[in-house]
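Check out one such.
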Amino acid sequence: MPSPTPDASGAALGSILSQRQEDGRLHPLGFLLESFKGAKQNYDTHNKELLAIIRSFEYWRIFLEGTPQPITVFTDHRNLEYWKESRTFNQRHAQWHLLLAGYNFQIVYCPGKQSGKPDALSQCADHADIPPADQTMLPDPVFANVALVTPKKELQRQIKASLDQDESLEEILQFLQNESKAPPSIKRAFKDYEMEAGLLFYQGRIVVPDVGTLRTDLLRIFHNSPLAGHPGRQRTLELVSRTYYWPGIRANTYWHVDSCEICQRIWKPKYTSIPPQPLELPSRLWQHVSYNMIVDLPKDGNCDSILVIMDSFTKYVILVECSKKLKAPELADLFLRHVWKRYGMPEKTISDRGRVFNNKFLKALYQRLGIDPHFSLAYHPQSDGQTERVNPTVKHFLRAYSGVNQKDWVKWLPMAEFAYNNAVHSSTGKSPFKALYGWEPSLTPSNVPTDVPEADNLATQMEEQWQEIEAALWQSKTRMVAGEVGEPLDPKLTKQRLGPFKVTGKISDRAYRLELLPTMRIHNVFYVGLLSKVKRDKKRNFENRPPPVTVDGEEEYEVEGITDMEERNGKWFFRVKWKGYGSEENTWEPRENLKNAKKILEKFEKEMKKKALGAAKALRGGAVS
Protein backbone atom coordinates (compact mmCIF):
# COMPACT_ATOMS: atom_id res chain seq x y z
CA MET A 1 0.00 0.00 0.00
CA PRO A 2 1.59 3.37 -1.03
CA SER A 3 2.19 5.83 1.85
CA PRO A 4 2.63 9.59 1.39
CA THR A 5 4.99 11.58 3.63
CA PRO A 6 4.01 15.26 3.28
CA ASP A 7 5.73 18.28 4.83
CA ALA A 8 5.42 22.05 4.60
CA SER A 9 7.70 24.98 5.35
CA GLY A 10 7.11 28.70 5.19
CA ALA A 11 7.57 28.89 1.43
CA ALA A 12 6.73 25.47 -0.04
CA LEU A 13 5.32 22.00 0.46
CA GLY A 14 6.88 18.68 -0.43
CA SER A 15 5.77 15.07 -0.36
CA ILE A 16 7.15 11.63 -1.12
CA LEU A 17 5.00 8.65 -2.10
CA SER A 18 6.65 5.44 -0.86
CA GLN A 19 5.86 1.76 -0.68
CA ARG A 20 7.31 -0.90 1.59
CA GLN A 21 9.23 -3.52 -0.41
CA GLU A 22 10.41 -7.05 0.37
CA ASP A 23 13.41 -5.77 2.33
CA GLY A 24 11.02 -4.13 4.82
CA ARG A 25 12.07 -0.60 3.85
CA LEU A 26 10.06 2.21 2.29
CA HIS A 27 11.16 2.92 -1.30
CA PRO A 28 10.09 6.13 -3.11
CA LEU A 29 7.58 5.92 -5.96
CA GLY A 30 7.22 9.65 -6.68
CA PHE A 31 7.95 13.19 -5.51
CA LEU A 32 5.84 16.33 -5.21
CA LEU A 33 7.26 19.85 -4.79
CA GLU A 34 5.24 23.08 -4.94
CA SER A 35 5.86 26.68 -3.90
CA PHE A 36 3.20 28.56 -1.97
CA LYS A 37 1.79 31.34 -4.12
CA GLY A 38 -0.70 34.11 -3.52
CA ALA A 39 -2.89 33.71 -0.44
CA LYS A 40 -1.29 30.36 0.42
CA GLN A 41 1.88 32.17 1.47
CA ASN A 42 -0.10 33.68 4.35
CA TYR A 43 -1.52 30.40 5.66
CA ASP A 44 -0.54 29.58 9.24
CA THR A 45 1.47 26.43 10.02
CA HIS A 46 -1.40 24.00 10.65
CA ASN A 47 -3.13 25.08 7.43
CA LYS A 48 0.06 24.59 5.42
CA GLU A 49 0.65 21.16 6.94
CA LEU A 50 -2.91 20.08 6.17
CA LEU A 51 -2.59 21.50 2.64
CA ALA A 52 0.47 19.28 2.13
CA ILE A 53 -1.72 16.24 2.87
CA ILE A 54 -4.52 17.55 0.62
CA ARG A 55 -2.14 18.12 -2.31
CA SER A 56 -0.59 14.66 -1.81
CA PHE A 57 -4.05 13.07 -2.05
CA GLU A 58 -4.94 15.14 -5.13
CA TYR A 59 -1.61 14.56 -6.90
CA TRP A 60 -1.58 10.78 -6.33
CA ARG A 61 -5.34 10.29 -6.37
CA ILE A 62 -5.13 7.30 -8.73
CA PHE A 63 -3.09 5.41 -6.10
CA LEU A 64 -4.72 6.61 -2.88
CA GLU A 65 -8.48 7.02 -3.41
CA GLY A 66 -10.91 4.31 -2.34
CA THR A 67 -8.39 1.88 -0.87
CA PRO A 68 -9.86 -1.01 1.17
CA GLN A 69 -7.03 -0.76 3.72
CA PRO A 70 -6.12 2.53 5.44
CA ILE A 71 -3.33 4.59 3.84
CA THR A 72 -0.58 5.53 6.29
CA VAL A 73 0.31 9.22 6.15
CA PHE A 74 3.64 9.91 7.86
CA THR A 75 4.11 13.39 9.32
CA ASP A 76 6.60 15.07 11.64
CA HIS A 77 4.29 17.89 12.72
CA ARG A 78 2.21 17.89 15.89
CA ASN A 79 0.51 21.00 14.50
CA LEU A 80 -1.96 18.71 12.74
CA GLU A 81 -3.46 17.92 16.15
CA TYR A 82 -4.99 21.40 15.88
CA TRP A 83 -7.55 19.84 13.55
CA LYS A 84 -8.63 17.27 16.12
CA GLU A 85 -10.60 19.98 17.89
CA SER A 86 -13.98 21.16 16.70
CA ARG A 87 -13.44 24.30 14.58
CA THR A 88 -15.40 26.85 12.57
CA PHE A 89 -14.94 25.98 8.88
CA ASN A 90 -14.69 28.57 6.15
CA GLN A 91 -15.40 27.68 2.54
CA ARG A 92 -11.87 26.38 1.93
CA HIS A 93 -11.99 24.17 5.03
CA ALA A 94 -15.35 22.73 3.98
CA GLN A 95 -13.90 21.79 0.59
CA TRP A 96 -10.93 20.11 2.26
CA HIS A 97 -13.29 18.28 4.61
CA LEU A 98 -15.28 16.86 1.68
CA LEU A 99 -12.09 15.81 -0.10
CA LEU A 100 -10.69 14.01 2.96
CA ALA A 101 -13.97 12.09 3.32
CA GLY A 102 -13.13 10.23 0.11
CA TYR A 103 -9.92 8.73 1.48
CA ASN A 104 -9.33 5.92 3.95
CA PHE A 105 -6.24 7.03 5.86
CA GLN A 106 -4.52 7.22 9.22
CA ILE A 107 -1.86 9.69 10.37
CA VAL A 108 1.30 8.35 11.98
CA TYR A 109 3.61 10.76 13.78
CA CYS A 110 7.23 10.37 12.69
CA PRO A 111 9.94 12.65 14.19
CA GLY A 112 11.63 15.11 11.84
CA LYS A 113 14.94 13.26 11.66
CA GLN A 114 13.14 10.13 10.47
CA SER A 115 11.32 12.03 7.71
CA GLY A 116 14.12 14.27 6.51
CA LYS A 117 13.47 13.80 2.80
CA PRO A 118 10.19 15.76 2.60
CA ASP A 119 11.78 18.40 4.83
CA ALA A 120 14.54 18.75 2.27
CA LEU A 121 11.96 19.29 -0.46
CA SER A 122 9.77 21.80 1.37
CA GLN A 123 12.65 23.82 2.84
CA CYS A 124 14.67 24.46 -0.33
CA ALA A 125 16.04 28.02 -0.35
CA ASP A 126 14.71 28.84 -3.83
CA HIS A 127 11.08 28.80 -2.60
CA ALA A 128 11.60 31.84 -0.36
CA ASP A 129 10.73 34.44 -3.24
CA ILE A 130 -23.49 34.06 9.86
CA PRO A 131 -20.83 31.55 10.72
CA PRO A 132 -21.10 27.79 10.35
CA ALA A 133 -21.07 25.46 13.33
CA ASP A 134 -17.79 24.00 14.55
CA GLN A 135 -16.61 20.79 12.87
CA THR A 136 -13.65 18.42 13.20
CA MET A 137 -11.28 18.23 10.23
CA LEU A 138 -9.17 15.28 11.45
CA PRO A 139 -10.99 13.10 14.01
CA ASP A 140 -9.07 11.07 16.59
CA PRO A 141 -9.23 7.73 14.70
CA VAL A 142 -6.98 9.00 11.88
CA PHE A 143 -4.15 9.61 14.35
CA ALA A 144 -2.80 6.07 14.60
CA ASN A 145 -0.12 6.48 17.22
CA VAL A 146 -0.11 10.02 18.59
CA ALA A 147 -0.89 8.73 22.08
CA LEU A 148 1.10 5.55 21.66
CA VAL A 149 4.52 6.86 20.68
CA THR A 150 6.16 9.27 23.07
CA PRO A 151 8.38 11.84 21.29
CA LYS A 152 12.08 11.07 21.55
CA LYS A 153 12.98 14.24 23.47
CA GLU A 154 10.15 13.72 25.97
CA LEU A 155 11.14 10.09 26.50
CA GLN A 156 14.77 10.96 27.13
CA ARG A 157 13.70 13.73 29.50
CA GLN A 158 11.76 11.16 31.52
CA ILE A 159 14.76 8.80 31.54
CA LYS A 160 17.06 11.58 32.72
CA ALA A 161 14.67 12.59 35.51
CA SER A 162 14.27 8.99 36.69
CA LEU A 163 17.92 7.93 36.91
CA ASP A 164 18.32 8.71 40.61
CA GLN A 165 15.08 6.84 41.44
CA ASP A 166 16.51 3.44 40.45
CA GLU A 167 18.46 2.08 43.43
CA SER A 168 20.32 -0.43 41.23
CA LEU A 169 22.04 2.47 39.44
CA GLU A 170 23.08 4.30 42.60
CA GLU A 171 26.59 2.78 42.80
CA ILE A 172 27.26 3.44 39.10
CA LEU A 173 26.20 7.09 39.36
CA GLN A 174 28.38 7.61 42.44
CA PHE A 175 31.36 6.09 40.62
CA LEU A 176 30.94 8.42 37.65
CA GLN A 177 30.78 11.46 39.95
CA ASN A 178 34.07 10.50 41.68
CA GLU A 179 35.73 8.33 39.06
CA SER A 180 39.27 9.44 39.89
CA LYS A 181 38.98 8.26 43.52
CA ALA A 182 37.53 4.83 42.71
CA PRO A 183 39.70 1.71 43.24
CA PRO A 184 40.92 -0.21 40.14
CA SER A 185 38.42 -3.05 40.65
CA ILE A 186 35.46 -0.64 40.52
CA LYS A 187 36.92 1.11 37.47
CA ARG A 188 37.15 -2.22 35.65
CA ALA A 189 33.60 -3.17 36.63
CA PHE A 190 32.07 0.12 35.44
CA LYS A 191 34.42 0.92 32.54
CA ASP A 192 31.61 0.67 29.95
CA TYR A 193 29.44 3.33 31.65
CA GLU A 194 29.60 7.08 31.02
CA MET A 195 27.47 10.18 31.55
CA GLU A 196 26.62 12.55 28.74
CA ALA A 197 24.08 15.39 28.75
CA GLY A 198 22.51 14.02 31.93
CA LEU A 199 21.94 10.56 30.43
CA LEU A 200 23.67 7.36 31.51
CA PHE A 201 25.19 5.33 28.66
CA TYR A 202 26.36 1.70 28.60
CA GLN A 203 28.55 0.83 25.63
CA GLY A 204 27.09 3.77 23.74
CA ARG A 205 23.43 2.95 24.52
CA ILE A 206 21.12 4.86 26.85
CA VAL A 207 20.48 3.07 30.15
CA VAL A 208 16.76 2.94 30.99
CA PRO A 209 16.06 2.92 34.76
CA ASP A 210 13.52 0.53 36.25
CA VAL A 211 11.06 3.29 37.16
CA GLY A 212 7.35 3.39 36.38
CA THR A 213 6.44 2.21 32.88
CA LEU A 214 9.52 3.54 31.07
CA ARG A 215 10.73 0.13 29.91
CA THR A 216 7.24 -1.05 28.99
CA ASP A 217 6.63 2.18 27.03
CA LEU A 218 9.82 1.59 25.06
CA LEU A 219 8.85 -1.99 24.29
CA ARG A 220 5.43 -0.82 23.08
CA ILE A 221 7.09 1.70 20.76
CA PHE A 222 9.42 -0.89 19.25
CA HIS A 223 6.86 -3.70 19.06
CA ASN A 224 3.22 -2.50 19.19
CA SER A 225 3.36 0.74 17.20
CA PRO A 226 2.51 0.78 13.47
CA LEU A 227 6.09 1.83 12.74
CA ALA A 228 7.30 -1.45 14.26
CA GLY A 229 4.50 -3.74 13.10
CA HIS A 230 4.55 -6.44 15.83
CA PRO A 231 7.87 -8.07 14.86
CA GLY A 232 9.10 -11.27 16.48
CA ARG A 233 11.33 -11.70 19.53
CA GLN A 234 14.73 -11.19 17.92
CA ARG A 235 13.73 -8.31 15.67
CA THR A 236 12.07 -6.44 18.53
CA LEU A 237 15.18 -6.96 20.68
CA GLU A 238 17.38 -5.66 17.88
CA LEU A 239 15.25 -2.53 17.44
CA VAL A 240 15.27 -1.70 21.16
CA SER A 241 18.96 -2.52 21.62
CA ARG A 242 20.10 -0.13 18.92
CA THR A 243 19.63 2.81 21.27
CA TYR A 244 18.65 1.54 24.73
CA TYR A 245 19.91 -0.88 27.36
CA TRP A 246 18.98 -2.20 30.78
CA PRO A 247 19.88 -5.38 32.69
CA GLY A 248 17.55 -8.17 31.58
CA ILE A 249 16.53 -6.42 28.35
CA ARG A 250 16.48 -9.72 26.45
CA ALA A 251 14.18 -11.49 28.93
CA ASN A 252 11.87 -8.44 29.19
CA THR A 253 11.63 -8.13 25.41
CA TYR A 254 10.95 -11.82 24.87
CA TRP A 255 8.22 -11.81 27.51
CA HIS A 256 6.64 -8.68 26.04
CA VAL A 257 6.47 -10.31 22.60
CA ASP A 258 5.32 -13.70 23.93
CA SER A 259 2.53 -12.13 26.00
CA CYS A 260 1.39 -9.72 23.26
CA GLU A 261 -2.31 -10.38 22.72
CA ILE A 262 -2.29 -9.56 19.00
CA CYS A 263 0.77 -11.70 18.30
CA GLN A 264 -0.71 -14.70 20.11
CA ARG A 265 -3.80 -14.45 17.93
CA ILE A 266 -2.18 -13.94 14.52
CA TRP A 267 1.12 -15.83 14.66
CA LYS A 268 1.08 -19.52 13.83
CA PRO A 269 3.80 -21.50 15.65
CA LYS A 270 6.75 -22.48 13.45
CA TYR A 271 7.17 -25.73 15.33
CA THR A 272 4.95 -28.71 16.02
CA SER A 273 3.57 -28.82 19.54
CA ILE A 274 4.41 -32.53 19.79
CA PRO A 275 6.25 -34.93 17.47
CA PRO A 276 4.03 -36.69 14.94
CA GLN A 277 2.48 -39.76 16.54
CA PRO A 278 1.23 -42.35 14.03
CA LEU A 279 -1.91 -44.32 14.60
CA GLU A 280 -1.68 -47.73 16.24
CA LEU A 281 -0.28 -50.21 13.72
CA PRO A 282 -2.39 -53.26 12.80
CA SER A 283 -0.85 -56.73 13.06
CA ARG A 284 -2.78 -58.47 10.26
CA LEU A 285 -4.71 -57.92 7.04
CA TRP A 286 -7.92 -55.88 7.23
CA GLN A 287 -7.69 -55.54 11.01
CA HIS A 288 -7.95 -51.74 10.74
CA VAL A 289 -9.99 -50.15 7.96
CA SER A 290 -9.97 -46.45 7.00
CA TYR A 291 -12.71 -44.97 4.88
CA ASN A 292 -13.66 -41.62 3.44
CA MET A 293 -15.67 -40.12 0.59
CA ILE A 294 -14.79 -38.10 -2.50
CA VAL A 295 -17.89 -36.02 -3.18
CA ASP A 296 -19.34 -33.60 -5.75
CA LEU A 297 -18.03 -35.38 -8.85
CA PRO A 298 -19.84 -34.94 -12.19
CA LYS A 299 -23.09 -36.87 -12.15
CA ASP A 300 -22.75 -40.30 -13.79
CA GLY A 301 -26.14 -41.98 -13.59
CA ASN A 302 -27.12 -41.83 -9.92
CA CYS A 303 -23.52 -41.55 -8.73
CA ASP A 304 -21.69 -38.36 -7.81
CA SER A 305 -19.29 -39.66 -5.14
CA ILE A 306 -16.72 -42.37 -4.39
CA LEU A 307 -16.43 -44.35 -1.17
CA VAL A 308 -12.71 -44.90 -0.51
CA ILE A 309 -11.92 -47.93 1.69
CA MET A 310 -8.34 -48.79 2.69
CA ASP A 311 -6.72 -51.63 4.58
CA SER A 312 -4.29 -49.95 7.00
CA PHE A 313 -1.95 -52.98 6.91
CA THR A 314 -1.41 -53.50 3.16
CA LYS A 315 -2.63 -50.05 1.97
CA TYR A 316 -4.95 -51.88 -0.43
CA VAL A 317 -7.76 -49.60 -1.65
CA ILE A 318 -11.32 -50.38 -2.72
CA LEU A 319 -13.18 -47.68 -4.67
CA VAL A 320 -16.99 -47.85 -4.75
CA GLU A 321 -19.19 -45.47 -6.73
CA CYS A 322 -22.11 -44.08 -4.72
CA SER A 323 -24.31 -41.07 -4.09
CA LYS A 324 -23.44 -38.13 -1.86
CA LYS A 325 -26.78 -38.73 -0.15
CA LEU A 326 -25.70 -42.20 0.94
CA LYS A 327 -27.50 -43.28 4.12
CA ALA A 328 -26.03 -45.31 6.98
CA PRO A 329 -27.83 -48.62 6.12
CA GLU A 330 -26.65 -48.26 2.52
CA LEU A 331 -23.07 -47.70 3.72
CA ALA A 332 -23.29 -50.85 5.83
CA ASP A 333 -24.53 -52.76 2.77
CA LEU A 334 -21.57 -51.53 0.69
CA PHE A 335 -19.17 -52.71 3.41
CA LEU A 336 -20.89 -56.09 3.49
CA ARG A 337 -20.61 -56.58 -0.27
CA HIS A 338 -17.12 -55.15 -0.83
CA VAL A 339 -15.18 -55.81 2.40
CA TRP A 340 -16.75 -58.05 5.00
CA LYS A 341 -17.73 -60.91 2.65
CA ARG A 342 -14.11 -61.12 1.38
CA TYR A 343 -11.88 -60.23 4.31
CA GLY A 344 -14.01 -60.59 7.42
CA MET A 345 -14.91 -57.97 9.99
CA PRO A 346 -12.33 -55.37 11.04
CA GLU A 347 -11.56 -54.67 14.67
CA LYS A 348 -11.25 -50.91 14.17
CA THR A 349 -12.56 -48.36 11.66
CA ILE A 350 -11.12 -44.88 11.12
CA SER A 351 -13.10 -42.10 9.44
CA ASP A 352 -13.98 -38.42 9.67
CA ARG A 353 -17.02 -37.10 11.55
CA GLY A 354 -19.31 -36.85 8.52
CA ARG A 355 -22.94 -37.71 9.12
CA VAL A 356 -22.63 -40.82 6.94
CA PHE A 357 -19.94 -42.30 9.21
CA ASN A 358 -20.95 -40.92 12.59
CA ASN A 359 -24.59 -41.75 13.36
CA LYS A 360 -26.70 -43.82 15.74
CA PHE A 361 -27.29 -46.64 13.26
CA LEU A 362 -23.61 -47.36 12.63
CA LYS A 363 -22.71 -46.92 16.29
CA ALA A 364 -25.31 -49.50 17.25
CA LEU A 365 -24.18 -51.82 14.46
CA TYR A 366 -20.52 -51.48 15.43
CA GLN A 367 -21.38 -52.20 19.05
CA ARG A 368 -23.29 -55.34 18.04
CA LEU A 369 -20.43 -56.54 15.82
CA GLY A 370 -17.66 -55.67 18.28
CA ILE A 371 -16.03 -53.05 16.04
CA ASP A 372 -14.19 -50.11 17.63
CA PRO A 373 -14.95 -46.93 15.59
CA HIS A 374 -12.44 -44.06 15.66
CA PHE A 375 -13.11 -40.55 14.33
CA SER A 376 -10.70 -37.80 13.37
CA LEU A 377 -10.41 -34.89 15.83
CA ALA A 378 -12.03 -31.50 15.26
CA TYR A 379 -10.18 -29.74 12.42
CA HIS A 380 -7.49 -32.44 12.38
CA PRO A 381 -8.06 -34.68 9.35
CA GLN A 382 -4.48 -35.97 9.66
CA SER A 383 -5.81 -38.61 12.05
CA ASP A 384 -7.72 -39.98 9.02
CA GLY A 385 -4.74 -39.25 6.80
CA GLN A 386 -4.47 -42.58 4.93
CA THR A 387 -7.64 -42.17 2.88
CA GLU A 388 -7.12 -38.38 2.73
CA ARG A 389 -3.88 -39.03 0.83
CA VAL A 390 -5.58 -41.46 -1.56
CA ASN A 391 -8.18 -38.87 -2.56
CA PRO A 392 -5.85 -36.54 -4.54
CA THR A 393 -4.44 -39.52 -6.46
CA VAL A 394 -7.87 -40.82 -7.45
CA LYS A 395 -9.19 -37.35 -8.33
CA HIS A 396 -6.12 -36.63 -10.43
CA PHE A 397 -6.57 -39.93 -12.26
CA LEU A 398 -10.23 -39.25 -13.03
CA ARG A 399 -9.46 -35.66 -13.99
CA ALA A 400 -7.08 -36.97 -16.65
CA TYR A 401 -10.06 -38.58 -18.42
CA SER A 402 -12.84 -36.12 -17.65
CA GLY A 403 -11.65 -33.94 -20.51
CA VAL A 404 -12.78 -36.65 -22.93
CA ASN A 405 -16.06 -37.52 -21.28
CA GLN A 406 -16.86 -35.93 -17.93
CA LYS A 407 -19.80 -38.19 -17.19
CA ASP A 408 -18.33 -41.65 -17.70
CA TRP A 409 -15.93 -41.77 -14.74
CA VAL A 410 -17.71 -44.77 -13.16
CA LYS A 411 -16.44 -47.14 -15.87
CA TRP A 412 -12.88 -45.92 -15.21
CA LEU A 413 -13.11 -46.56 -11.46
CA PRO A 414 -12.11 -50.28 -11.53
CA MET A 415 -9.06 -49.34 -13.59
CA ALA A 416 -8.17 -46.53 -11.20
CA GLU A 417 -8.44 -48.95 -8.27
CA PHE A 418 -6.26 -51.54 -10.00
CA ALA A 419 -3.66 -48.94 -11.04
CA TYR A 420 -3.39 -47.60 -7.50
CA ASN A 421 -3.06 -51.06 -5.95
CA ASN A 422 -0.50 -52.14 -8.55
CA ALA A 423 1.88 -49.23 -7.78
CA VAL A 424 4.52 -49.53 -5.06
CA HIS A 425 3.46 -47.80 -1.83
CA SER A 426 6.15 -45.67 -0.18
CA SER A 427 5.41 -46.89 3.36
CA THR A 428 5.61 -50.64 2.57
CA GLY A 429 8.01 -50.74 -0.37
CA LYS A 430 5.56 -53.08 -2.12
CA SER A 431 2.45 -52.67 -4.17
CA PRO A 432 -0.77 -53.10 -2.12
CA PHE A 433 -1.74 -55.90 -4.54
CA LYS A 434 1.40 -57.92 -3.75
CA ALA A 435 1.15 -57.11 -0.02
CA LEU A 436 -2.39 -58.53 0.01
CA TYR A 437 -2.12 -61.50 -2.42
CA GLY A 438 1.62 -62.23 -2.47
CA TRP A 439 2.11 -61.88 -6.22
CA GLU A 440 2.16 -59.14 -8.86
CA PRO A 441 -0.64 -59.12 -11.43
CA SER A 442 0.05 -59.12 -15.15
CA LEU A 443 -0.39 -55.66 -16.60
CA THR A 444 0.18 -56.05 -20.35
CA PRO A 445 -2.36 -58.09 -22.35
CA SER A 446 -1.11 -60.77 -24.77
CA ASN A 447 -0.20 -59.72 -28.32
CA VAL A 448 -1.50 -62.98 -29.79
CA PRO A 449 -4.45 -62.12 -32.11
CA THR A 450 -7.76 -63.99 -31.95
CA ASP A 451 -10.44 -64.81 -34.46
CA VAL A 452 -12.95 -62.54 -32.70
CA PRO A 453 -12.50 -58.87 -33.85
CA GLU A 454 -14.54 -57.49 -30.94
CA ALA A 455 -12.25 -59.24 -28.45
CA ASP A 456 -9.14 -57.97 -30.25
CA ASN A 457 -10.49 -54.42 -30.22
CA LEU A 458 -11.34 -54.63 -26.53
CA ALA A 459 -7.88 -56.02 -25.69
CA THR A 460 -6.15 -53.30 -27.73
CA GLN A 461 -8.31 -50.64 -26.10
CA MET A 462 -7.51 -52.00 -22.64
CA GLU A 463 -3.78 -52.05 -23.43
CA GLU A 464 -3.91 -48.37 -24.45
CA GLN A 465 -5.95 -47.52 -21.39
CA TRP A 466 -3.51 -49.28 -19.05
CA GLN A 467 -0.62 -47.33 -20.52
CA GLU A 468 -2.53 -44.08 -19.99
CA ILE A 469 -3.53 -45.15 -16.49
CA GLU A 470 0.04 -46.00 -15.53
CA ALA A 471 1.27 -42.60 -16.77
CA ALA A 472 -1.53 -40.74 -14.99
CA LEU A 473 -0.90 -42.58 -11.72
CA TRP A 474 2.85 -41.95 -11.74
CA GLN A 475 2.28 -38.30 -12.62
CA SER A 476 -0.08 -37.91 -9.67
CA LYS A 477 2.29 -39.73 -7.30
CA THR A 478 5.24 -37.58 -8.44
CA ARG A 479 3.24 -34.44 -7.72
CA MET A 480 2.22 -35.78 -4.35
CA VAL A 481 5.84 -36.41 -3.35
CA ALA A 482 6.71 -32.81 -4.23
CA GLY A 483 3.82 -31.11 -2.55
CA GLU A 484 1.14 -33.36 -1.12
CA VAL A 485 2.25 -36.79 0.07
CA GLY A 486 2.86 -36.75 3.79
CA GLU A 487 1.70 -33.17 4.17
CA PRO A 488 -1.22 -32.73 6.55
CA LEU A 489 -4.15 -30.51 5.72
CA ASP A 490 -3.69 -27.00 7.01
CA PRO A 491 -4.92 -27.14 10.62
CA LYS A 492 -5.40 -23.37 11.01
CA LEU A 493 -9.08 -22.61 11.64
CA THR A 494 -9.14 -18.91 10.82
CA LYS A 495 -6.74 -16.06 10.51
CA GLN A 496 -7.48 -15.03 14.09
CA ARG A 497 -7.45 -17.36 17.05
CA LEU A 498 -10.32 -17.52 19.51
CA GLY A 499 -10.26 -17.93 23.24
CA PRO A 500 -8.89 -18.48 25.74
CA PHE A 501 -11.03 -21.53 26.53
CA LYS A 502 -10.89 -23.64 29.67
CA VAL A 503 -9.53 -27.18 29.41
CA THR A 504 -12.13 -29.57 30.85
CA GLY A 505 -10.42 -32.86 30.14
CA LYS A 506 -7.33 -34.54 28.70
CA ILE A 507 -8.33 -37.23 26.23
CA SER A 508 -4.74 -38.24 25.43
CA ASP A 509 -1.36 -36.64 24.82
CA ARG A 510 -2.71 -35.57 21.44
CA ALA A 511 -6.18 -34.28 22.26
CA TYR A 512 -7.94 -32.11 24.84
CA ARG A 513 -11.56 -31.30 25.55
CA LEU A 514 -12.36 -27.57 25.84
CA GLU A 515 -15.26 -25.71 27.40
CA LEU A 516 -16.83 -23.99 24.38
CA LEU A 517 -19.80 -21.66 24.32
CA PRO A 518 -23.17 -23.15 23.31
CA THR A 519 -23.20 -21.02 20.15
CA MET A 520 -20.06 -22.72 18.82
CA ARG A 521 -21.50 -25.75 17.08
CA ILE A 522 -18.31 -27.73 16.65
CA HIS A 523 -16.88 -30.79 18.34
CA ASN A 524 -15.22 -29.82 21.63
CA VAL A 525 -12.20 -32.17 21.35
CA PHE A 526 -9.19 -30.59 19.63
CA TYR A 527 -5.82 -31.80 18.44
CA VAL A 528 -3.04 -30.38 20.62
CA GLY A 529 -1.30 -28.86 17.59
CA LEU A 530 -4.14 -26.31 17.36
CA LEU A 531 -3.81 -25.26 20.99
CA SER A 532 -1.31 -23.08 22.79
CA LYS A 533 -1.05 -21.97 26.38
CA VAL A 534 -2.03 -18.34 26.86
CA LYS A 535 0.72 -16.09 28.19
CA ARG A 536 -0.53 -13.18 30.26
CA ASP A 537 1.32 -10.05 31.28
CA LYS A 538 -0.18 -8.65 34.48
CA LYS A 539 0.72 -5.14 33.32
CA ARG A 540 -1.45 -5.47 30.23
CA ASN A 541 -5.07 -6.45 29.75
CA PHE A 542 -5.80 -9.56 27.69
CA GLU A 543 -9.27 -9.13 26.26
CA ASN A 544 -11.35 -12.25 25.83
CA ARG A 545 -12.52 -12.04 22.25
CA PRO A 546 -16.10 -13.18 21.80
CA PRO A 547 -16.42 -16.24 19.56
CA PRO A 548 -18.79 -16.14 16.59
CA VAL A 549 -22.48 -16.84 17.11
CA THR A 550 -24.04 -19.41 14.80
CA VAL A 551 -27.15 -18.01 13.06
CA ASP A 552 -28.94 -20.27 10.56
CA GLY A 553 -25.80 -22.39 10.26
CA GLU A 554 -23.54 -19.39 9.55
CA GLU A 555 -20.96 -17.87 11.90
CA GLU A 556 -21.62 -14.24 12.80
CA TYR A 557 -19.58 -11.71 14.78
CA GLU A 558 -21.12 -8.83 16.70
CA VAL A 559 -20.87 -5.35 15.17
CA GLU A 560 -19.67 -2.70 17.60
CA GLY A 561 -19.88 0.25 15.23
CA ILE A 562 -19.45 1.57 11.68
CA THR A 563 -16.61 4.02 11.07
CA ASP A 564 -16.77 4.80 7.34
CA MET A 565 -18.54 4.13 4.06
CA GLU A 566 -17.58 4.20 0.39
CA GLU A 567 -19.08 3.43 -3.00
CA ARG A 568 -17.60 0.73 -5.23
CA ASN A 569 -19.05 0.22 -8.70
CA GLY A 570 -22.43 1.55 -7.64
CA LYS A 571 -22.55 -0.51 -4.45
CA TRP A 572 -22.06 0.86 -0.91
CA PHE A 573 -19.61 -0.75 1.49
CA PHE A 574 -19.29 0.02 5.21
CA ARG A 575 -16.17 -0.18 7.38
CA VAL A 576 -17.15 -2.30 10.40
CA LYS A 577 -15.58 -2.27 13.87
CA TRP A 578 -16.13 -5.73 15.40
CA LYS A 579 -16.85 -6.12 19.10
CA GLY A 580 -13.82 -7.40 20.99
CA TYR A 581 -11.42 -6.80 18.07
CA GLY A 582 -8.94 -3.98 17.48
CA SER A 583 -9.31 -1.33 14.77
CA GLU A 584 -6.57 -3.06 12.75
CA GLU A 585 -9.10 -5.84 12.07
CA ASN A 586 -11.90 -3.59 10.79
CA THR A 587 -13.33 -4.86 7.51
CA TRP A 588 -15.36 -3.46 4.59
CA GLU A 589 -18.76 -5.15 4.35
CA PRO A 590 -21.68 -4.73 1.90
CA ARG A 591 -25.09 -3.77 3.23
CA GLU A 592 -26.46 -7.31 2.96
CA ASN A 593 -23.88 -8.54 5.48
CA LEU A 594 -25.23 -6.13 8.10
CA LYS A 595 -28.85 -7.27 8.16
CA ASN A 596 -28.56 -8.11 11.88
CA ALA A 597 -27.06 -4.69 12.71
CA LYS A 598 -29.81 -2.48 11.28
CA LYS A 599 -29.92 -0.04 14.20
CA ILE A 600 -26.17 0.61 14.08
CA LEU A 601 -26.32 1.03 10.29
CA GLU A 602 -29.28 3.43 10.47
CA LYS A 603 -27.55 5.51 13.15
CA PHE A 604 -24.37 5.77 11.08
CA GLU A 605 -26.23 6.76 7.90
CA LYS A 606 -28.17 9.40 9.82
CA GLU A 607 -24.91 10.89 11.13
CA MET A 608 -23.34 10.88 7.66
CA LYS A 609 -26.36 12.64 6.14
CA LYS A 610 -26.18 15.28 8.86
CA LYS A 611 -22.47 15.88 8.18
CA ALA A 612 -23.02 16.07 4.43
CA LEU A 613 -25.85 18.57 4.91
CA GLY A 614 -23.67 20.68 7.19
CA ALA A 615 -20.79 20.68 4.71
CA ALA A 616 -23.12 21.65 1.86
CA LYS A 617 -24.55 24.56 3.83
CA ALA A 618 -21.05 25.67 4.74
CA LEU A 619 -20.10 25.79 1.05
CA ARG A 620 -23.10 28.06 0.38
CA GLY A 621 -22.15 30.25 3.32
CA GLY A 622 -25.24 29.33 5.28
CA ALA A 623 -25.54 28.45 8.96
CA VAL A 624 -25.63 24.89 10.18
CA SER A 625 -28.13 24.09 12.89
Remarks:
- The radius of gyration is 35 Å.
